[in-house]
Amino acid sequence: MLRTKELLNAAVAKNAAMVIADAAQAYLVRSKHMLSGDDTNLKNTWEEICVQVQGEKSYFWEAYEDAMRGAVLGVMQFLDRGLLQTLWLHTDEGWDLRCDLGADEAEGLTAQADYEPPDIPVDDEAIARHIIAKYLLLFADDYTNSRIEEFLYPGDDDIYDDAAEQRDEGLAPPKSQT
Q1: What are the backbone angles phi and psi of residue 37, rounded to the nearest 5°?
Q2: Are 131 and 17 in contact (CB under 8 A)?
Q3: DSSP bridge partners of 177
Q4: pLDDT tens, 119-157?
Q5: pTM of the shown model
Q6: Quick one: 145 exposed, middle or buried, by C-beta within 10 A (0-12, 13-18, 19+)?
Q7: Where are the chain's structural domains?
Q8: What pLDDT was estimated at residue 169?
Q9: Closest Cα to residue 49, out of 40, 60, 38, 37?
Q10: Gap between the Cα atoms of 65 and 129, Å rounded
């Protein structure tokens, strides 16, 4: 069992969530299960998700949500229970217990020999929802390449170059690209 201070460590939870989101993104880049049709220039599921997030969500959005959920849950299966507990405590569902544990820690109760920490549940679905909402969708909104730009702005040959030029001049936020 991890100590209360370790369970409440927001930096550990954030780093773990980012690693999971990165691994899920890599999985989705390798995935070729695509719904955008044979005439698309998009190459993988991740690019389709990016188009959905940056543009307009299609009829198939639930399928993309399922793909993200499956990718995140697939990564999470390799994590130990202590890390999953830390992640769960930093979800909306874990907020109350996190506050209670923080209060116990602040009052010095956790340092007492007879302190019995509460059972910390692990809700994989809550963790996955949190990572998708707070990390993976933000990654998708920030990710671009020429295929995504062409899909979002067909026929505008300069859009990708204009966006890159604006970023170089500090007029637009940086976007990740491959």
Answers
A1: 105, 165
A2: yes
A3: 144
A4: 888 999 999 999 999 999 999 999 999 999 999 998 876
A5: 0.79
A6: middle
A7: 4-177
A8: 52
A9: 60
A10: 10
